[in-house]
Design brief:
Arp2/3 complex 21 kDa subunit ARPC3; mainly alpha
Length: about 170
């Protein structure tokens, strides 16, 4: 590992983004059925900064939470959280990080913005799908409760992730 700057940077970013996603779960505004947190912002930012490697910290974050470390929103943990109504959003972080990361490998600002926005919507779609399955909600109700109310905040988080990442190396 000595002298391998790319590998060292990947390890440092992985640790930093696991910490930031965890911290983002503690910064929350109560909403029903899931709180409005900054977790998704840090997932998007990981994609923008780490590109396709953003899957690594995001998947490790989910694994750590599933194994019982209190990393999910407000310090909850365990497989039960992933099987509960908010589990779809958490699982959606993984493909969203990949989508955002792949899009941010492009030099086109339009592709980067579209990828970050698509990743944000992908998280919400996974959440809605899981609400329909786990809570037995009607699709229209799940869409309103699980997606529609989060779109304005997620648009702000997407824009912020893009603007911040634009100024990072």
């Amino acid at each position: 590992m000595f002298g391998d700057l790319k590998r060292s940077r990947r390890i440092a970013y992985t640790a930093a983004f696991i910490g930031l996603i965890t911290l983002g779960g503690w910064i929350s505004v109560p909403f029903v059925p899931a709180p409005f947190t900054l977790q998704t912002f840090f997932v998007l930012l990981a994609g923008a900064v780490m590109k396709r490697d953003a899957v690594i910290p995001v998947a490790l974050y989910i694994l750590l939470g599933a194994l019982g470390l209190p990393v999910f929103h407000n310090g909850v943990a365990g497989i039960g959280i992933l099987l509960g109504p908010t589990g779809g959003y958490l699982i959606g972080f993984i493909p969203a990080a990949l989508l955002a990361g792949l899009a941010c490998e492009s030099h086109s600002p339009a592709r980067r913005i579209a990828g970050l926005a698509g990743a944000s919507v992908l998280i919400l779609m996974c959440g809605v799908a899981w609400l329909i399955i786990s809570a037995g909600m009607a699709p229209a109700a799940a869409f309103v409760i699980g997606m529609l109310i989060f779109l304005p905040g997620d648009a702000v988080k997407t824009g912020a992730a893009y603007l911040i990442a634009r100024h990072l190396p």
